[in-house]
Amino acid sequence: MEDLFEFAGSDSTDKSLNINAILTAVCKNKTIMKQTAAELAVDEKELEKFLVNHIFVTENIKTNNVMAGNETPDLIEEKIWDSAGAYSSAVLHTDGGSRGNPGIAGCGIIIEYENGPKIGYYYYLGEVTNNEAEYAGLVKGLTILSEMRVKKVAAFADSELMCNQINGKYKVKHPVLKTYYEDAKKLISSFQTFSMTHVLREKNKDADKMANIAMDLKKDGETKWTVAE
Questions:
Q1: If you average pLDDT over every residue of the chain, what do you get?
Q2: How far apart are CA 109 and CA 192, in angstroms?
Q3: Distance of alpha carbon 156 from alpha carbon 140, whole angstroms
Q4: pTM of the model as a whole
Q5: Whether pLDDT at 72 is above 60
Q6: Residue 62: is its pLDDT beyond 60?
Q7: 33, 38, 56, 104: which one has the fewest Cβ atoms less than 10 Å from its Cβ?
Q8: At 37, is the pLDDT very low, low, confident or very high (cuts 50, 70, 90)?
Q9: With pLDDT > 70 as the criterion, what percentage of the chain qualifies?
Q10: Closest CA to 77 of 45, 49, 101, 110
Q11: N- to C-terminal Cα distance for the chain?
């Protein structure tokens, strides 16, 4: 990591900007962070602390001078993410399915970041109902976006029940769905703006493909989305 620090502290403005952009993406993506820590044979938390303390904080002090005063570490980190955030908004498509209802189930997620990549995620859920799988997809998608510190989210799903419940049109009575609903609403509250829109299945086919991959393979995974819509 000493070599990494030396490069980040280079006098070259272009190199400094490039490395900060790369390291920001690493810090924001938990999967990449884990992989990077493993490749460097270092503790994941120590790597994240190193990047924040020695690169982002230093750069923030030099450029914006916002670290003066008695600010808490949490507030400092929040300012760092706000100034270095890669994506301010994203479009989220989710879907869930159950072969048997309840039966073998999976959920699929498609995230399109503004001026960024389109990424597909799939999660195997074991044996649950179709509605539970739909909610699992939404909660997992919102969790990813919350961890990425996205500010504005436009979500789409083909479950009319879930969309109407999230939008307050239907009450949530089922105890399992109520837990999912509460988790989703808590995550939604972390965004500056959020919308939930019901779409027909043909408008949600990419997320549906991800859900079916999860059920076929019976495992979790992610992929850069390259299939034409």
A1: 79
A2: 21
A3: 14
A4: 0.66
A5: no
A6: no
A7: 38
A8: confident
A9: 69
A10: 49
A11: 42
Beta partners for 81?
Answer: none
Residue 212, amino acid = N
Record the tokens describing residue 213, joined without a space.
Answer: 């991959």
Of the candidates 202, 213, 219, 95, which has an alpha carbon nearest to the alpha carbon of residue 157?
95
| Class (C level, CATH) for 89-224 | alpha beta
- Phi, psi (deg, nearest 5) at residue 203: -90, 0
Contacts of 44 (CB under 8 A, 6+ apart): 33, 34, 37
Q: Which residues of 7-43 are buried (b: 16+ CB within 10 A; e: fewer)?
A: ebeeeeeeebeebbeebbbbbbbeeebeebbeeeeee
Residue pair 92/153 in contact by the 8 Å Cβ criterion: yes
For the residues of 133-179, what is the DSSP string, one character each? Answer: HHHHHHHHHHHHHHHTT--EEEEEES-HHHHHHHTTSS---SHHHHH
Alpha carbon distances (Å) from 31 to 41, 138, 208: 15, 19, 23
What single-letter DSSP state applies at residue 54? I
Q: What is d(CA 172, CA 165) in angstroms, rounded to the nearest whole number?
A: 6
Which residues pair with residue 35 across a beta bridge? none
Q: Under a CB-based contact definition with an 8 Å cutoff, are residues 79 and 60 in contact? A: yes
